[in-house]
Amino acid sequence: MTRPFTILLLFFLSVSLVSHADGGKQGYTVGDTIVDFKLLSIDGTHKSLKNYEKEKGIILIFTCNHCPFSVAYEDRIIALHKKYAMMGYPVLAINPNDPTAKPIDSYENMVERAEDKAFPFDYLQDETQEIAKRFGATKTPHVYILKRQQKIFTVEYIGAIDDNAFEPDGVHKIAEYALDQLTTDLPVSLKATKAVGCGIKWKK
Amino acid sequence: MKHSIRVPLIVVLVLTIFCYSFSAGKQNVPIVKIPWLDSMLHIQNDTTYVLNFWATWCIPCVAELPAFDSLQIAYSKQKVKVLLISLDYVKKRTEQVIPFLTKERIQAEVVLLNEPNANAWINSVDTNWSGALPATLLVNNNTSFRYFLEKELNFELLDSILKTNFINR
Q1: How many angstroms separate the CA atoms of A58 and A94, rounded?
Q2: Residue scoring higher pLDDT (A5 or A30)
Q3: Number of domains within chain A
Q4: Is residue A125 part of a domain?
Q5: Yes or no, beta carbons of B91 and A194 under 8 Å apart
Q6: What does each C-alpha distance from B149 to A83, A107, A158, B63, B154 come to in angstroms?
Q7: B15-39, pLDDT tens digit by residue?
Q8: How many Cβ pairs closer than 8 A exist between chain A and B?
Q9: Which structural domain, as residue segments, surrounds residue A194?
Q10: Which helix (H) or strand (E) holds A81?
């Protein structure tokens, strides 16, 4: 009587373990700890979270060259960095797109775009797309605000920069609200939002 | 006598206008808001709605549009309604969206959802939708059929999903 039940239980347990093991698709949620990574930046050096150990946190943004929504947000991303880097929250941009799908998203074009727009922040290439998958990023732009405690970075906010990609004036600056709360040691009141963006161009 | 002539005349006139507007493929693209979307998501009838969220700037979206047109034609005798919901900037409607639809000869019905704050409505379409485009919801509220996909689709895939919807009845 109990044996089939035990077998059934073991079966469901193993299924749930397996589904968790490859559950990278879900990615990080608010409160999760970030596993360090190392990616090539536009200055030719590899950057990891260790490069940010003197900061209070990071405004990590998956973005790219080709997506009109990313382009629409470029100036706002630069403004975010200029405002919050001095408060300990610099921007760290990561391009997760497969350049064979979108040649404009190649490393060379990233360097060129960063020069044209004078990006004041690191712009990394996620060549294997493993970091985007680990984060659960699905689109560009896709924001993750991270907070550092000693050597550990945790996710404090996931989602949109603001609530209107088309008209920058008069928007609700949702990411800034979170940053204002973090920089004054307050808990973030709105931890996750959704926005429309370009689906990440995954390798086929 | 007078009356009997007038009626066919009106019918001919209406038909001419209808045929002309159809052959010209001129899309009107009404601008819609959240209440319209809510009503589409909860409409109680026996039609299966194929709601595709797209934008002219989204390359995979543009690539899959002909599949939705083909689907509407293939299911013209069944209660299937394809609706292409553009998320383009409302100010690009006349200069970009309508000329694009004319050029590409898109026949399916198109509306423009003018709600830039997607956080206010994305979860009502599907809680699993991250916001990436393209995205498609197949929904029939009478049969509680609901199928959401956040990826580029083709005709075969759409057709296979629709077929399962009809089998389940």
Answers
A1: 12
A2: A30
A3: 1
A4: yes
A5: no
A6: 38, 30, 21, 16, 12
A7: 444 444 444 457 899 999 999 999 9
A8: 61
A9: 29-199
A10: helix A68-84
